[in-house]
Design goal:
6-stranded parallel sheet; single chain; 9 strands; binds adenosine monophosphate; alpha/beta
Amino acid sequence: MRVYDTIRDMRAACRDAQRDGTRLGFVATMGALHEGHLSLVRAAKATCDVVAASIFVNPAQFGPSEDLTKYPRTFDRDRQLLEREGVELLIAPSVEEMYPTGTVTWVDVEGLSDKLDGRSRPGHFRGVATVVAKLFHAVEPDAAFFGQKDAAQLAIIRRMVRDLNFPVEIVACPIVREADGLAMSSRNAYLDPQQRRQALVLYRSLLRVRKLWEGGESSAAKLVAAGCEEVAGEKSVRLDYFEIVDADSLDPVETVRQGALVPVAAVVGTTRLIDNIQL
Ligand code: AMP
């Protein structure tokens, strides 16, 4: 695996790798890798000839009171894991490389970026869309692999790719969970054993909604109420949102049909966690 810290070198290496019609896959990460990230790499390996990845903790997607400075950074381990999975090209740029002094240009996916996490994390999705656009320019992948775990992010990236004509196929990969159902996340490392148990309420609430829906309930209001009630049962968990939305527009639906997205976000201790299911 070749590791680069500049966009210029990464782009040259990726262009070189893509000669003769090679299909280049790309996985963007903030590091602190777990099986969720590695599942994206494996999906990329399965359908692409060469796989590129990035490790960059993107300051632009963290709010002023969020966990940017304490976000777990485990570069040496991450690098080994990616190498073991067969990633050929890695970019791990500095903040200055990605956002040189004087940077004033941002990608704002209007109408989507203020929904769900964007409502409680103003500017978050602007930071995400901007960094993904920049990484797409650095790598110029044929296909990019994103986790369904961050469903709103996925909808926003799909829209950005469509609106700005990026020649890249966006591939969604299923959520990887711990054996007890907790969605894998780099932020799970913040949870103490008690909070780790309490965090299971997120997935439990989603399963309750799925069961009711499969039993014939199609009123979003009733399904959301059931989900909220489940979360409320775990007293120390503070719900941020529980919604049922259209997976593309992220607009709430009234009648729940197949394909609807059920996203939940809640704070456990001081850790904000998200999860979702698609019905
Ligand atoms: P992050 O490092 O949190 O920015 O995530 C990088 C990529 O990994 C994103 O596309 C995430 O959606 C994806 N990802 C994170 N956790 C999981 C998971 N548990 N299952 C599947 N994909 C995931």
